[in-house]
Design brief:
Length: 313
């Protein structure tokens, strides 16, 4: 069943369905994304401007069997998706070797998940991450998975490394809930981050409990939500089985790709002029003000792996 895309996993993905794409300014302009993120300088730059030597690499991986006909998550496939994404992200031939570049056996690792009842981080993704942490030598008693209690959970209080994972969806204030917003529970007061369309969310990554610890961001695009009204509005009508993961070490670059996907789906389903939820200004500000990553498309290397049907971006 899995051989169609993943057997042999590294060769088939790299040689047959690996679609590597460096995001250009012109590509990112499509769908008005430049206007949203406020990258006016990038819009005005010449197409012939030299590319930066180093880019933030983001992996988008999809598999048609990540969910079955009943929309149930497939643990085996999701594990293989994560493994392939990490190997490509870090240029390794083995997923355990890739994880060993992220963590050491003596690390204390918090997996920052998300428990929003309508669209939580799938347990299958949490398990896939934890399995590879164990394989990399991290002790089970030094691995924790939490959301609301990260400020007091002993693993997170003592953590030396964090892995950030949650589903991608629209948000009535921030515009999009992604990896940046997922750290809001590290803040002493969550409402304190709500003003101005949650513009200060990027500052969460500079909190003492967090700063310098995030080793990996896994934005779940298995079943994204592209539309909603109000703080807890949810309708299956606006969720689709995209069957993807967006993976990277840079949370801003990962969210930039997630936003591009949400905008593409909104444009297709809701029509022209409705590509945007509330302006997700926090993504660009996380870059330009807080310096935690890049939202500049000229500095993002997007690599697509796996199932190409209706990839949209």
């Amino acid at each position: 069943m899995l051989g169609r895309v993943f057997a042999p996993p590294t060769d088939s993905l790299r040689n047959e369905v690996n679609m590597k794409q460096v995001m250009t300014r012109r590509d990112f302009i499509r769908g008005t994304t430049f206007a949203v993120l406020g990258t006016a300088a990038a819009v005005g730059a010449s197409q012939d401007s030299p590319l930066p030597a180093k880019k933030s690499r983001v992996i988008l991986i999809r598999h048609p069997e990540a969910l079955d006909e009943n929309s149930q998550f497939n643990q085996e496939v999701i594990q293989k998706m994560l493994d392939e994404a990490l190997m490509k992200l870090l240029d390794q031939g083995d997923p355990v070797a890739a994880f060993r570049l992220l963590v050491k056996p003596d690390d204390i690792v918090g997996i920052k998940s998300n428990v929003w009842s309508y669209l939580p981080t799938p347990a299958q993704v949490e398990k896939a991450i934890k399995r590879r942490l164990l394989d990399a030598g991290v002790k089970e008693e030094n691995i924790g998975i939490d959301d609301h209690n990260v400020r007091t959970n002993p693993i997170f209080v003592k953590s030396t490394a964090l892995i950030n994972t949650r589903p991608v969806r629209t948000h009535y204030l921030a515009g999009m809930s992604g990896c940046i917003k997922n750290y809001i529970m590290f803040g002493e007061s969550q409402p304190a981050y709500h003003p101005d369309n949650c513009a200060a969310l990027g500052s969460l990554f500079n909190l003492p409990q967090v700063k310098g610890k995030t080793r990996l961001n896994v934005l779940c695009a298995l079943t994204p939500q592209y539309h909603g009204l109000g703080p807890h509005n949810f309708s299956r009508r606006y969720v689709w089985n995209y069957k993807g993961l967006i993976v990277g070490q840079d949370p801003v670059a990962v969210d930039t790709i997630g936003l591009r996907l949400i905008m593409a789906k909104r444009g297709k389903e809701l029509g022209p002029g409705r590509e945007l939820p509330p302006v997700p200004k926090h993504i660009q500000i996380a870059d330009t003000k807080y310096g935690i990553g890049t939202s500049d498309p000229q500095k993002i290397e997007l690599i697509k792996l796996g199932w190409p049907d209706e990839v949209m971006i």
